Amino acid sequence: MTRISHIELDDRNLPPPTPEIEQERKVAIYDLLEDNSFALPSRDGRVVPDGPYHVQLSIRDKRLVFDIATEAEEKAAEFHLSLGPFRQVVKDYFQICESYFNAVKSLPPSQIETIDMARRGIHNEGSRVLQERLEGKAEVDSDTARRLFTLICVLHFGG
Questions:
Q1: CA 45, CA 149: separation in Å to the nearest integer?
Q2: Cα 99 to the chain's mean position, in Å?
Q3: Does residue 157 sit in helix, strand or coil?
Q4: Three-class DSSP category at 96
Q5: Cα-Cα end-to-end distance for the chain
Q6: What are the φ and ψ backbone dihedral angles of 27, each rounded to 5 degrees?
Q7: DSSP class of residue 74?
Q8: Is the distance from CB of 54 to CB of 71 less than 8 angstroms?
Q9: Other CB atoms within 10 A of residue 103 CB
Q10: Which among 2, 93, 98, 121 could bridge 39 via Cys, Cβ 3.0 to 4.6 Å?
Q11: Mean pLDDT, residues 70-74 taken together
Q12: More confident of the two residues 111 and 46
């Protein structure tokens, strides 16, 4: 099965998230586990263990780490991605999310919808960057990339 069945964020060394960030995290994890597509391609002729997979995301030494295991907790893969390509899009995403959270409190629906459309556009850009960075390491569909991007933002927020 080419999917994630369990995901964990290693946020031990990060400050506690705001209530809004915690809510984004919970929704992203729930949605991800409900429906995702995640496969490990064969690399260097090695056999890739079958999924479903357990994925742990963390930030170590200023790098995003995907630690992937099988359901039987056997190591399947580990890869490290530079955070550099994500910095600007994460920053933009947090700025637009802050505007959105503030707008929901006081602005009319038409203005909230405009901000939400911008937020979705930035989110799509982040998921596109993630898919590019995962090329050759993991195959994910757009929806899975979007949800993983949200979780990367949560880790970035604390890091």
A1: 29
A2: 21
A3: helix
A4: helix
A5: 32
A6: -65, -45
A7: -
A8: yes
A9: 18
A10: 2
A11: 93
A12: 111
Give residue 47's pLDDT: 82
Inter-residue contact 153 to 58 (CB < 8 Å): no
Cα–Cα distance measured from residue 95 to residue 91, given in angstroms and rounded to the nearest whole number: 6
State the number of CA atoms in the 13 A half-sphere of 33 facing the CB.
11
Separation between Cα atoms, residue 126 and residue 89, nearest integer Å = 6
SS3 per-residue string spanning 2-30 = CCEEEEEEECCCCCCCCHHHHHHHHHHHH
What is residue 80's three-state secondary structure? strand
CB atoms within 10 A of CB 106: 8
Token representation of residue 139: 């195959």
Contact in structure between 116 and 100 (CB atoms under 8 Å)? yes
What's the pTM value of the predicted model, to 2 decimals? 0.89
What residue has token string 């937020």? 119
Under DSSP, is residue 61 helix (H, G, I), strand (E, B) or coil?
coil
Lowest mean pLDDT among 65-69, 129-133, 153-157: 153-157
Query: In sequence order, what E strands does the chain have?
Result: 4-10, 38-39, 53-60, 63-70, 75-82, 139-140
